[in-house]
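Q: A reviewer asked whether we had any structural model of the full assembly, not just the individual parts. We don't, so I'm hoping you can provide one. Inputs are below.
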Amino acid sequence: MTTLERFILDQERFHPDATGELTNLLYDIALAAKIIASQIRRAGLVNILGAAGSTNVQDEEQQKLDVFANETMKNALNHTGRVCAMASEEDETLIPIPDGYPAGKYAVLFDPLDGSSNIDVNASVGTIFSIYLRRTKEGPGTLEDVLQPGRDIIAAGYVMYGSSVMMVYSAGHGVHGFTLEPTIGEFLLSHPEITTPPVGKYYSVNESNFGRWSSGVQRAVRGFHGDEPDRIAGKNSRYVGALVADFHRNLIAGGVFLYPGDLKNPLGKLRLLYECAPMAFLAECAGGAASDGRQRILDIMPTGLHQRTPLVIGGKDDVDYVNEVIAAEDGGS
Ligand code: P6P
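A: Here is a predicted structure for the entire assembly that you could use as a starting point for your response.
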């Protein structure tokens, strides 16, 4: 059995100047994941224990799970001296380190509970995180430390709370999956060196938006329907409605996920910093690709914490196909 801690320590050989701080930071995130997982597992009992906002049988305030997950991530990271600042999809502004605690060399961004509406129907949800080296030299972290392009990510990953709890991460040397063994409370290496096929068997998109897409996006998706067999083989449609779950299936089995912009939301729905950039980092580390339909996600320079971007992510050839069709049909750069 290779635990997450043992594996990350072994990986340090790739970083001669490793101080062990990144190892400890990843372990802090793994601890938060275990705490969140334990609370999610009880979600189905909330009617017995009391719905969010009410008090449970122990007369404790029942937090909404996304609030709980957000507080858990912040509390696992803010006092360690490894982090100078955080940003979360759940917080409007930058999350500073509390007074009295040292500011560390990393900036951490996260979506604490992605796809949380799936909880009510017992479908998969996830936590997404990315880690950067701070930009500013010392003192409290600032927006400059978190508004960094995805190409500067030094590690990123997600936790998927599904039929089992899995943590998938990369520090730039391969993508590795760990499955939580609940009886011992450890993440054990279950999927070393994950790579994603260049052409996948699945495509994932919310087709109810089809009428609002550009003609390029419509043509690319019709290609996935099998309408242009001479150009691209048709694919099976799979869509869970939680990015972590759709991404994970496509990463392992091969596939492409799209959340395009449309007439109503030109930049789509997904957030650049908390959802698209970390997943794009993982996709590229696994041999895949990620674009906004035109440019590489990792090259987008963020201007705001909560900015959105269209997303095409998965097998390299599938992403290239979508980019080519959009360029041909929609023109522009
Ligand atoms: P739609 C969940 O709300 C989320 O942010 C992603 O996890 C998911 O991929 C997407 O939105 C689903 O959005 O519009 O298809 O329900």
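A: Points you may want to mention in the reply: Residues 4-191 form a domain with the Fructose-1,6-Bisphosphatase; Chain A, domain 1 fold (CATH 3.30.540.10). The longest strand covers residues 106-114.
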